[in-house]
Design goal:
Order of helices and strands: EEHHEHHHHEHEHEHEHEEH
Number of strands: 9
CATH architecture of the largest domain: Alpha-Beta Barrel
Strand content: 15-25%
Number of helices: 11
Radius of gyration: 18 Å
CATH topology of the largest domain: TIM Barrel
Number of domains: 2
Length: about 250
């Protein structure tokens, strides 16, 4: 299983971490503005899974009304072509514009890039839609995990969805799924995680114990160096990333 490290990877005050050779998920909204990151992608030093930036619009109501989606897709497609990106998600904004418009935008994106995007299944699309997706596409994703459209006690549906995909030769990505126990149970081909960032925000130090990530809470009355914690947590999650690729 590939575990893509997701989130802001911007370098501030010198190099935060060495990204070369890593599996990284990043948003088009961020990548479009970051020349340093793009140079690493162009040099083949990062295995990039490109997110469309859809979550930005779904979480910010102020962004939804005045967006020219055709122009956005055109920019997105141009970026994919310029940087020779092979793995990129559709603009899954079902809740904003409706499924039919999402399908139209997906067709436009794939026509411009001359390659398949990664369609993102949401629960409202239904099981029949999933069945058609995995027949048509080699790589598909399950969305709605982070937003709890699919609640934690309902995660058992992943087994059936993954099995249907495997029967049709499709790979499955779990968007934002990093329940560590769940990663052992549900056989995704890939997932992405921003969990390495959480410790930096909550004062926890992460450590890879040879099989999984454990957190060490700082002792009361002590202070942590934020930059050192960020580097440590990123490094430990890279260890887990390499473990997962061979063992999960």
């Amino acid at each position: 299983m590939k575990v893509y490290l997701a989130g802001e990877h911007e370098v501030k005050n010198g190099s935060l971490a060495d990204w070369r050779g890593l599996d990284i998920l990043e948003s088009f909204v961020y990548c479009e503005k970051n020349r340093h990151f793009n140079r690493l992608v162009n040099a083949g030093q990062i295995n990039l899974l490109l997110d469309s930036g859809a979550f930005t619009f779904m979480s910010d109501k102020n962004n939804q009304g005045g967006v020219n989606w055709n122009a956005y897709i055109d920019r997105y497609a141009a970026f994919v072509l310029e940087h020779k990106i092979e793995k990129f998600f559709e603009l899954d904004i079902d809740s904003v514009v409706g499924l039919k418009e999402v399908e139209r935008l997906r067709t436009r994106l794939e026509s411009l890039t001359h390659r398949q995007s990664i369609p993102v299944w949401h629960r409202a699309r239904g099981l029949d839609y999933w069945r058609s997706m995995v027949k048509e596409y080699e790589y598909v994703a399950i969305g709605g995990i982070v937003t709890r459209e699919i609640k934690q006690h309902e995660h058992g549906i992943f087994t059936n969805l993954i099995n249907i995909a495997k029967e049709n030769g499709a790979r499955v990505h779990g968007l934002g799924y990093t329940n560590l126990k769940g990663l052992e149970k549900y056989k995704f081909d890939s997932v992405d995680s921003t969990s390495w960032l959480y410790g930096n925000r909550s004062g926890e130090v992460f450590k890879f114990n040879g099989k999984t990530i454990v957190s060490i809470t700082k002792p009361p009355g002590t202070r942590l160096n934020a930059r050192d914690v960020a580097i440590n947590n990123f490094t430990e999650w890279v260890k887990f990333q390499k473990y997962a690729e061979k063992n999960l």
